[in-house]
Write a structure and sequence with these properties.
Blueprint: H1 9-16, H2 21-28, H3 32-51, H4 57-66, E1 70-72, H5 73-80, E2 90-95, H6 100-109, E3 114-117, H7 127-132, E4 135-142, E5 148-154, H8 160-163, E6 173-175, E7 179-182, H9 185-188, E8 192-194, H10 205-214, E9 218-220, E10 246-247, E11 254-257, E12 270-272, E13 297-303, E14 306-312
Parallel strand pairs: 2-5, 8-9
Antiparallel strand pairs: 1-2, 3-4, 4-5, 6-7, 7-11, 10-12, 12-13, 13-14
Helix pairs in contact: 1-3, 2-3
Length: 317
């Protein structure tokens, strides 16, 4: 009778394909063998999702790692919600500004894509919107099979700043060749999400809401509408307050590496709040040690033994 340690990798992929991500994360903590197997299964999941858009996924993921980029949007959400299968409509890639042209050239030359939208297109004319979302501009590419790739040239060296400016908490989620994470796992794994700053995302808000509802995600304005948070003026203690300053490596976030034993993890320098709507508590008035208020997002920079906020992008309150 086969045991866990005697199964082939292909058998493991089949067995664990329908298992939700929280269960897999518990399983991988059971032994070194389980850690290795689950890591490879999750890597295979990333590759399979990318294969819906690209034939040579190995070359793409290698280039993504070289460019220090991450995958966000629908593909990242689909990776997290293994128990909520849907077909992503596009593959969103976020890269730092210094390697954007290298990644663009890789997609055009290696994968023979067609560039539909670039920096000088009308879609990139709203500079204020782009700045508020930590982006310089966005490329839209089309594969030979008609699939859509969205390549974001981020304005920050850490592309997670742009991921943090997503329209809902569900998409404050990323996956890369090295690992994956999400800022609101307590909501996401229950198929829940909070809306972000609508004032900046009203260009196509109807389509955004429709996409999430059709995928079975319960989208709300505040966490207190759900039973376990009802009666709470502010849900910051549970890490699900929409106004609470957050990072990708704080106590409420999920940050996982495929190979956690290979050195210490890197701390994220991005801090943000999902929205500027008052939460009923004191989150909106949080300041750093230098008296600066955080609005949409900021980059933490080392200042001796502390971190300070280098600057912030402001909400329209």
């Amino acid at each position: 009778m086969p045991t866990f340690s005697t199964l082939t990798f292909e058998e493991h992929v089949v067995i664990w394909a329908a298992v939700d991500l929280p269960t897999l994360l518990v399983l991988r903590s059971c032994s070194h063998n389980a850690l290795t197997v689950v890591g490879e299964v999750l890597r295979a999941s990333v590759s399979l999702l990318c294969r819906q858009f690209l034939d040579d996924t190995a070359a793409f993921l290698q280039e993504l790692s070289h460019c220090r980029g991450v995958i966000g949007g629908q593909v990242a959400v689909r990776f997290m919600l293994r128990d909520l299968p849907f077909v992503p409509e596009s593959l969103e890639v976020y890269v730092p500004p210094d390697v954007h042209l290298e990644m663009q050239r890789h997609l055009l030359d290696t994968h023979h894509m067609t560039l539909l939208v670039s920096f000088d297109s009308p879609e990139n004319a709203d500079e204020a919107w782009l700045a508020d979302h930590a982006l310089h501009y966005t490329d839209v590419l089309r594969t030979q099979q008609g699939r859509t790739i969205i390549l974001h040239r981020c304005s920050e060296a850490e592309p997670l700043a742009a991921v943090a400016c997503a329209p809902t908490s569900a998409e404050v989620t990323y996956v890369s060749p090295e690992g994956f994470g999400t800022a609101y796992p307590a909501l996401l794994f229950q198929h829940r999400a909070l809306v972000a700053d609508w004032a900046h995302d009203d260009r196509n808000i109807g389509a955004l809401l429709d996409w999430r509802r059709r995928r079975g995600i319960d989208l709300r304005m505040a966490a207190r509408v759900w039973p376990e948070y009802r009666g709470m003026y502010c849900a910051a203690a549970k890490w699900v307050c929409h106004t609470q300053p957050r990072t990708f490596t704080d106590g409420g976030a999920l940050a996982v590496r495929f190979s956690p034993l290979q050195g210490p993890r890197e701390e994220s320098t991005v801090m943000w709040r999902l929205d500027g709507r008052p939460c009923g508590g004191s989150c909106l008035h949080v300041e750093d040690a230098h008296g600066q208020k955080l609005y949409k997002y900021t980059i933490l920079v080392e200042d001796g033994e502390e971190y300070r906020w280098s600057y912030q992008h402001r909400f329209v309150l």
